[in-house]
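Hi F.,

I've been meaning to write this up properly since the lab meeting, where we talked about keeping a consistent format for the predictions we share between groups. The idea is simple: the sequence comes first, exactly as it goes in, then the structure tokens exactly as they come out, then a line or two of notes. No screenshots and no reformatting. I'm using this chain as the first example so we have something concrete to point to.
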Amino acid sequence: MPETKLTPKYGLPKKVIFCRRCVMSNQRPASSIEFARKLNTKHKTLHIDDDGVCDACRAAEQKGQINWEKREEELLKLLDRYRSNDGHYDCIVPGSGGKDSAFAAHILKYKYGMHPLTITWPPILYTDYGYKNFRNWIEVGGFDNIAFKPNGQVMKLLTRLAMENLFHPFQTFMLGQKNLAPKIAIKYKTPLIFYGENEAEYGNPIADNKLSLRSKSYYTTKNLNEAHLAGVSIRELVKRYNLKLVDLMPFLPADYKDIEKSNIEVHYLGYYIKWVPQENYYYAVEHTGFQARPFRTQGTYSKYNSIDDRIDDLHYYTTFIKFGLGRASYDASQEIRNKHLTREEGVALVRKFDGEFPDRYFNEVMDYIEMKPERFFELRDKFSPPHLWKKINGEWKLKHTVWAGGINNMK
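Output, unedited:
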């Protein structure tokens, strides 16, 4: 079929463009975990301007012009308004004990005198070192923590359905994780939720630092009849899979009536403090006993990003299939923006590691979701967008690559 006749999947742009500063392309979905998204809903994609520079690189450029002393003064005024002296928690810090949540919780408590409650939606399949980092976060770092573990059978079913219907094994995990903080904040009447980086730094359309829960539609179950999990409607999950609504509530947002009565605010610590993931890593090692993976993460060159779940590596592989962007693309783009890599070095790393098949935990993941490996590869073929991939001699090849080695690059 001629290239002009191919219809891109997932609402992606037909023309593939790479940012001239980092290694990200306009195929990256800018908001991939929005609540109740159906598979055929158009994604908002990373924008690249007329100068060939992406939103995320523009945001990084703006960070270099920020007066961080003044931003910290803003933070101090905010914290002074909410800091508790009566034994109550005054902020919620979601996380798993990774480098970023470890940094955020520790600096809020020990530098700024806040009283954070840390909360965790645990990984689906903990890695040994991921669980150790979680324990160190609480024991070495010194924090109170609520870990909410959803029904294991429901989590398994939704993970398998998300793989079957969306080729996105983390979809329901990410929804549950995102929706946990507002629920806990409401229950404990805690006025602040602190996330780490503002999502605008990755090109996502969330640029405001201060958010009210009432302003975010994905925090409410008001439109429950329109909601989908794992590509399946709530009604069908209840009827076809014999689930009860209570089984699904952990993955769904807080009740809109509770939200309407809430004055809880969401803030991004990265708005107030210059956020550098590599420096967060060293801080977490020193203050909470964080440890990197004992080996290189498959699909990339790093050892300390997103390492607590055995499904992490496979998740990034599925993004490589659907969007032509693997884990090395994400890691290298971030490090280029932080001036820890040149673009040339980033391109070389993407060329070497992007799309590496994550076989280390693959069979364990397949056993967990009760899927035959052959079925996974059938799904891979099904979800490979024709505007990005072409099968040659039985092997899938990218049509466009950042190193100009794709099929169409060489024409």
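Notes:
DSSP finds 16 helices and ten strands in the chain.
The first strand starts at residue 91 and ends at 94.

If this format works for you, I'll send the rest the same way.

G.
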